Amino acid sequence: MATQYGFSIKSERCVQCQACEVACKGANQVELGPKWRRVYNFWDGQYPQVTNRNLSISCLHCAEPACLEVCPVGAITKRTEDGIVVVDRDVCIGCQSCAKACPYGAPQFGRDGTMQKCNLCLGRITQGDVPACVATCPGEALDFGPIEKLIQLGSSASARKLEGTTRPSLVIITSDAVARKVYTEAFAAEWPARRP
Fold this sequence. Notes:
Blueprint: E1 5-10, H1 19-28, E2 37-44, E3 51-58, H2 66-70, E4 76-78, E5 85-87, H3 97-101, E6 108-109, E7 115-116, H4 122-126, H5 132-136, E8 142-146, H6 147-153, E9 159-161, E10 170-173, H7 177-190
Parallel strand pairs: 1-10
Antiparallel strand pairs: 1-8, 2-3, 4-5, 6-7, 9-10
């Protein structure tokens, strides 16, 4: 694979307005229920020093996607040209093995029972546009592109690629050391409890 695409988020700019969630649903005609993009808030500290931080995530288009490995019918593939993980809903049998394997809760299931998830707005980006969530964010918190480019856009002190066994393609840009700790702990230990 030549390039790995993914998302970055400047966490201090996310105001939890959920415009990204709405834009994603509208652009991809996602039915009620499944959420291809989700905004989470993380609370830290004890009264009176309580803080709240926000994070918007979708499928993380992992370099080594666990969902792909467990799909018994090959409905999930990873594009070689850009690393985007896609699902063929016509092939999916709805067994939900992918949902059990994904540590980030990306696989979603609607009325038809087949898996659906963020495809990085493939139709939009192939036309030279940006994903709907990126285009809509009023705080300009979200960006997308090659992971190495996203890391370079953040200063070396503030941009960190999320680590994990599946090698997720998400760069979190924050100058807040507490936020970095909160996100790292949430993804490392608590994430299964936060699945939608």
